[in-house]
Amino acid sequence: MILITIILLQFVSAKFICQNNEEVITDQDEVDINSARIINSLGIGVIETDEVGVLRKFDATLLIDSAKVVISNQTSPQTIDLLTKSYIIGFVNSTSTTAKITVEGNSKEVEKETPIEIGGLTVFLVQTDSSETDTPNAKLVVGTKQIFLSNYEKQYEKVEVANKTFFITLYSSSDSNAILTVSKCEKSHITEIADEPKENEDVNITETNETNVEENVTQTNEREEVNVTEEQNITENNTENKTSGTSVEEAKPSIFKRFWNWLKNLFN
User: Fold this and answer.
1) pTM, to two decimals
2) What Rg value do the Cα atoms of the chain yield, rounded?
3) 49, exposed or middle or buried, with CB in 10 Å at 0-12, 13-18, 19+?
4) How many separate domains does the chain show?
5) Which range marks the domain in which residue 254 is found?
6) How far apart are CA 152 and CA 58, in angstroms?
7) What is the 3-state secondary structure (H, E, C) of 175-199?
8) Do 131 and 20 share a domain, yes or no?
9) Cβ neighbours of residue 124 under 8 Å, at least 6 residues apart?
10) In the listed set 166, 181, 205, which residue is the last one of a domain according to the structure?
11) Which of 3, 21, 28, 207 is 20 to 30 Å from 156 by CA-CA measure?
């Protein structure tokens, strides 16, 4: 049997304009997972990505107004300058899977690869080193806002950072990085002009064929009809043979009757 799988993918077709008709400034770059990079003056961290090649689906979890931080008890505290404001981050201690971090005087234990909010910052623990021989430290990705983008739900999002408007678009992602586009206006706010999404029909033939099914049903029905007809003919032939056999036996005289006739002929 053949099955036909139809996948409908929705492609992003969005345009942006500046309110004072100035030219939109757009920049694109690749950001590795568990890292952060400045794109078009906005720091963006990538803390999770996923790609399903067969289904052509991809997504990414991002931290906005972000930076990568390596902190230890020797460098603590550190001042991190973001667009929103400057934050003071401190390191208390760590284990193989957790680290106790302080942001603006607020301390919390952060588990590895689990984002948590501390003092107005989202803190993501990438790696920690608590060995006795080396200086205990923690590698972090921090940001003021967390968003999720994908090509099957929402592929771009408008964000406001320090009275500035940005549109962030997820161009693509893999299991190790994400390609992101950041659009903005220099002297005014950026707005969106969205086109109607277009659907692209991708037909993936795995094995379905209704004609084959109908032909199989028809052939099965025909075979059943032939079998029924043959069974009826066999039954009728058996009935005729039984009837014919009974008539022949009745026409033949019995042994006793033939012996009696022989005796009568002998004495006549």
Assistant:
1) 0.69
2) 42
3) buried
4) 2
5) 210-267
6) 8
7) CCEEEEEEEECCCCCEEEEECCCEE
8) yes
9) 34, 45, 47, 63, 110, 113, 114, 115, 140, 141, 142
10) 205
11) 21
